[in-house]
Amino acid sequence: MKTSVIAAAAVVVGWAAAAWAAGSVTVPMTLITADGVGAAIGTVTLADSAAGLVLVPTLTGLPPGPHGFHVHTNPSCAPQAQTDGRAAAGMAAGGHYDTHGTGKHLGPEGEGHLGDLPVLTVGADGTASQPVTAPHLKLADVSGRALMIHAGGDTYSDEPKPLGGGGTRIACGTIP
User: Which of 5, 24, 52, 53 could form a disulfide with 47 if both were Cys (CB 3.0 to 4.6 A apart)?
Assistant: First the structure.
């Protein structure tokens, strides 16, 4: 009896994994600088759930600590010249995804722009593997956009610094 329960559980787990894989998208992530796209650092797998869009990072080579994590409007990780003429990393991705034009940075649970994702936590060893969920997003919303990791954490407020005080764009991937 015990064996059949274990076998049934294995079938359910296997089915859930297959269902996840069938309805998911894997985004290759790379380091970015003002000079362009750099080394591959892993992937982030995205899939819909009853709670929202689940993002599962499998990343290495990042600075330890909290990092701003966002969906950006354009599907590009390229640098772009700023008003001072100097190129900045990942600026071709545009701003945070804000389909409703709120102009507000209120976090993944708030009613501001939809590009806010929960903070990405990177361990002391430079790896990130903790899944996060964006409750207001679905996979269809983010297709054809960029997934961005910023230096430093995110306060989900425009005070005291704009856009949550996150630093420069350090890693990026385009979402198919």
Answer: 24
pLDDT band at 10 (very low <50, low <70, confident <90, very high): very low
Sign of the torsion formed by the C-alpha atoms of 26, 164, 167 and 82: positive
Of 60, 68, 74, nearest to 30 (Cα)?
60
Nearest Cα to 30, choosing from 63, 59, 69? Answer: 59
Domain boundaries, the chain: 25-174
Q: List the CATH code of the domain at 25-174.
A: 2.60.40.200
Q: Which of the two residues, 59 and 161, has the higher pLDDT score?
A: 59
Half-sphere exposure of 119 (CA within 13 A, CB side): 17
Task: Tell me how far apart the alpha carbons of residues 152 and 155 are, in angstroms, rounded to a whole number.
Answer: 10
Cα separation values, 96 from 2, 36, 75, 125, 141, Å: 51, 20, 12, 28, 13
Q: What pTM value is reported for the model?
A: 0.84
